[in-house]
Structures are given as C-alpha cells and as structure tokens.
Amino acid sequence: LQDGSYDAVMTGVCYSPERDETYDFSTPYYKRQIVGVVRADSEYANYTKLSQFAGKNTKLTTQIATDYETSSECFLAVQNKTADMVILDYTTSISALSTMNNLKMLNLDFTEPEGASNDCCIVFREGDPMRDTVQEALDKLNWNDKAEFDKLMDEMVKLQPSSN
C-alpha cells in the first residue's frame, strides 16, 4: 500500500490508533470474532472458558509471529499434535473445519485487550480521495450492517471452503 503497488488493502486489517497515524480507514465492515480450534479428541475439546487452560502447559499457535506462514499450517499443526490449539478468527476457522477432519471450534471468552480493536476496515494511503468514494459505496450497500455482512461471509465460506 505504502509504495503504491496497491490502492487499498482489505484483508482483515483491524483499526488501531497507531495505524490511523499513517493510514486512512473505512468504517468497520466486520467485527472479527476470535475463537480457538482444538482436536476433537483432545482433553480441551469441551472447554468453554479460557480459565480452564490454566496450568495445562497448552501449546498455542496463531498465524502472526509464529513458525507458520499460513492459517492452514496452523490448523495442520493442531491436527498433527504439534500444537494443542490455534487461535484465529471465526470465518477462517469455520472454513478450515469444513475441509479438515477431527477439529473442533471453541467459543471461549476472548476479550479485546484495552486499546486494541477487532474492527476490520479497508485501509487507504493517508489523504487518498478514493477512501471517500469507497466509503460512499459501502454506505449505499449497507455494508457495515453486521447481520448482512455475516450472511454474506457465511455464503462466501460455503463457496470457497478451502481458502487460506
């Protein structure tokens, strides 16, 4: 984005005050829900709270800042028992569960750290007038209606279940 190769980025980028100093954002189009995915036959498969993991020495992974470059590799690590749980977003996880065996999604009590956001936005170079044009289109489509977006996301996952 910064070097001009792209005009905008829409890949689940979440708003942050630090990013807002460099980039311009659309209004949020999606609120990322964080979930955990474990092996269905693991001791963790029926956990409902993060506190249940206390003292368990659970091996966690996620895509950013790990040995895994893709979300698929994270889910494979859980399948292969290299990791006990992957923590990612709901839509990526539901897609993985539709194509991978013996995995179970846990809706745990994840909370956003103070100052962080799970609001996904479209990102533009600062001052780019394209931001206003795209925002107007999003507003006309009622794109920031969570129920409508969730419906569209569920449809997309069905159409492309093995996406990375």
Topology summary:
Layout (H helix, E strand, L loop, with lengths): L7 E2 L7 H4 L2 E3 L4 E2 L2 E6 L20 E2 L9 H9 L5 E5 H10 L3 E4 L12 E2 L2 E3 L4 H12 L4 H14 L5
Walkthrough of the structure:
The protein has five helices and nine strands; from the N terminus they run E-H-E-E-E-E-H-E-H-E-E-E-H-H. By secondary structure, the protein is of the alpha+beta class. The strands form three sheets. It has a four-stranded mixed β-sheet. A three-stranded antiparallel β-sheet has the order 1-9-2, with no helix packed on it. A two-stranded antiparallel sheet has the order 3-8. The longest helix is centred in the C-terminal third of the chain and has 14 residues.
Shape: elongated
Radius of gyration: 18 Å
- Arrangement of strands in the largest sheet: 5-6-4-7
Q: In whole angstroms, how far apart are the ends?
A: 21 Å
What letter string, H or E per element, gives the SSE order? Answer: EHEEEEHEHEEEHH
Largest sheet: 4 strands, mixed
In percent terms, what proportion of residues is strand? Answer: 15-25%
Helix/strand-derived category reads alpha+beta
Mean pLDDT level: 87
Helix content: 25-40%
DSSP, total strands: 9
